[in-house]
Amino acid sequence: MFQLIFFSILNGLVYGMLLFMLSSGLTLIFGMMGVLNFAHASFYMLGAYFAFTLGLHLGFWPALVIAPVLVGLLGALVERQGLRRVHGFGHIAELIFTFGVAILIEEVVQLVWGRPAKSYQVPALLDFPLFRVMSSSFPAYKAFMLVVAIAIFGFIFVILTRTRAGLIIQASLTHPQMVAMLGHNVPRVFMVVFGIGSALAGLAGVIAGPVLGTFPGMAQVLGSIVFVVVVIGGLGSLTGAFVASLLIGIVQTFAVAMDVSVGGTLAAVGVPVASGGALHDLWKVTIAQVAPILPYVLLVLMLIVRPTGLFGTRET
Amino acid sequence: MSKPKSAVVLAVILAVVTGLAASATPADPIRIAYIDPLSGPFAATGESGLNQFRYAVDAINKAGIVPGRPLEIVPFDNKVSPQESLIQLKKVIGDGIQFVFQGNSSGVAHAISDAVQKHNERNAGNRVLYLNYSAVDPALTNEKCHYWHFRFDAHADMKMAALTDVIAVNKSIRKMYIIGQDYSFGKAVADGAVSMLGKKRPDIQIVGNELHPIGKVKDFSPYIQKIVAAGADAVITGNWGADMVALAKAANDGGLKVPFYTYYAASNGITAAIGAAGIDRIRLVHETHPANPNSPKALSDYITGFRKLHAQDDINQPRINTGLSMLAQAIKRAGTTDVDKVAAALEGAEFTTIGGDQVVMRREDHQLQMPIYISVHTNKNIKHDLDASGFGLSLENKIERDKVVQPSTCKMQRPS
């Protein structure tokens, strides 16, 4: 039991931090431009594919640095040449634009790399079990993922709260006209933030690709859950994204470990459940079976109870 | 532009287009619809299937099985969605195509099978034949069987019978864990495993029987922890596509060393993704010789020819060739493409596969009867690898046709 709980916490943390790397960029971009960027998960996918190809020629470590930079530049380009022009036509146009970019990227990835999954492997240096507890082992690579994610969190946090650049970004979020009046180039700030957000997604792709698989559907698989994180955490809130990522990571991991049925859980907390009846099948479903949809349940509950999210200040 | 003028232009365009279409097809081809995922998370599987269909059709056309009538594959993308499949099926019927192949996902297969049955009962002059090359939910040839459905893959219970025969003599397995995707096929695998293990090895304890949503799980580590915590010495899974890759990767990361008995852990990037992590651990229950070691010559040539066209792709479903060849021979015997007559010619038909196996299409339920192979993932003595990865499948057991025969509850209604 101890082993199960211990590893569930670790796995939950790793998965949660991965979600955070994706959602931090998304929430920043939303906070600033008011646009839910549907193409965000596609930048994550590009990160993985770039790193895979670069890794073939240069090895994993240079790819770890170069791939996110490339994705970031691409993101900045999309903002500069696309989103900024669409901006004048309102949020709906921007939303549809990012949606189009997402589809475009997926098709391009299929054209360039083909449809089958790529054999993007963990680098040999990190391909060993870090430690063993009883019969399970924890791979060194996952520890590495955790370290990178924490470093990123620290990095963004310090930049946003302790530097002048951070001050300008934060001010641009709420008072763009004022910041422009003070002589700052607000569109460029937007472009830089969009680029950094994309680069973060790319970095998440680089380090998640070997573990979660590198295939053209990888953006779709992770895309929806990232929106859930951002909404639960509160749109535009970095702290919210952090807490919500960990929350979802841990909840989902533990839910999988629970073999109790829905009916049994209700009975345990004092709600009587009639055996038989129309809902008979529903009560037999185990928590583990519904684990992957729990975040969405959480999303709906959050929107009902607290539409601003955990740390958000504006209505979704 | 005035109206009469545009009508003239339209007429000219139509004439040119139809003229081109007519001149482009000298012989009248027999068109065969291929309805499977060509986009989305399972696109890799569908794309590879399409390559194998086209390759098989080329071989059949070269051999001239149906004189003067080449076969032609027309692909339709269903995104593995039953709703989308029904839309595509309507298009297929609208285009006048009479033969439909589909295989990925039993959920889709049920939808198409139902729709084909209803359509055929209502449209006696315009029937279609559903040829299922991969969807292995046993129900399709049992309680849900009908005259216009034929299956060329061994269904889940036939494969499970073979698998449990092998497990029955492996005394080191005492605790079994079953994990699968939460839909009809995943459930069929689980039910088959529980009932057959219960008969053949009552001493084996089922320590876990788990279903997860299909295509929704990102990280399988929590599931692997559960398997470890349950103390399983072997795992049975029907997972396919991205769900199989992720499961194998998580097992390796979590240090789970027990054997995995799988239905689909090969090709489409899965073999390459599993790599060294699966050596002597991942086993596959499948329907044709794995081509290693000592491949039958015809199979070996067939694979080599395919690899020349598609360097990264594999012949992982030789049953595609079996299905198409048997259809072509049935059309030849029937002397027509009339669906009811072709179906009658297919019933009871015998065939020798490229792997050299004698197979027969059982009349009572339209389930192809065939031997089953169990192979192990390895890189030793691999002549024909998969995913161009150096890894491939090596034969461990062959379970003969009569050993995997399953009774059927099908009560076939034949059109009078």
Structural class of chain B: alpha/beta
Instruction: Return the average pLDDT of chain B rounded to an integer.
Output: 89
Number of DSSP helical runs of chain B: 13
Mean pLDDT metric of chain A:
85
Return the CATH topology of one domain in chain B: Rossmann fold
State the CATH class of one domain in chain B.
Answer: Alpha Beta
The percentage of residues in β strands of chain A lies in under 5%
Dominant shape of chain B: globular
User: In percent, how helical is the residue content of chain A?
Assistant: over 70%
> Which regions of chain A have little confidence, pLDDT < 50, spanning 5+ residues?
none
- Work out the helicity level of chain B: 40-55%
CATH superfamily of one domain in chain B: Response regulator
CATH architecture of one domain in chain B: 3-Layer(aba) Sandwich
The gyration radius over C-alpha positions of chain B equals 22 Å
Give the quaternary arrangement of the chains.
heterodimer
Distance between the termini of chain A: 40 Å
Biggest interface and its residues per chain?
Answer: A-B, 45 and 44 residues
- Based on DSSP secondary structure assignment, what is the total number of beta strands of chain B? 15
Unreliable segments of 5+ consecutive residues of chain B: 19-25
Secondary-structure-based class of chain A equals mainly alpha
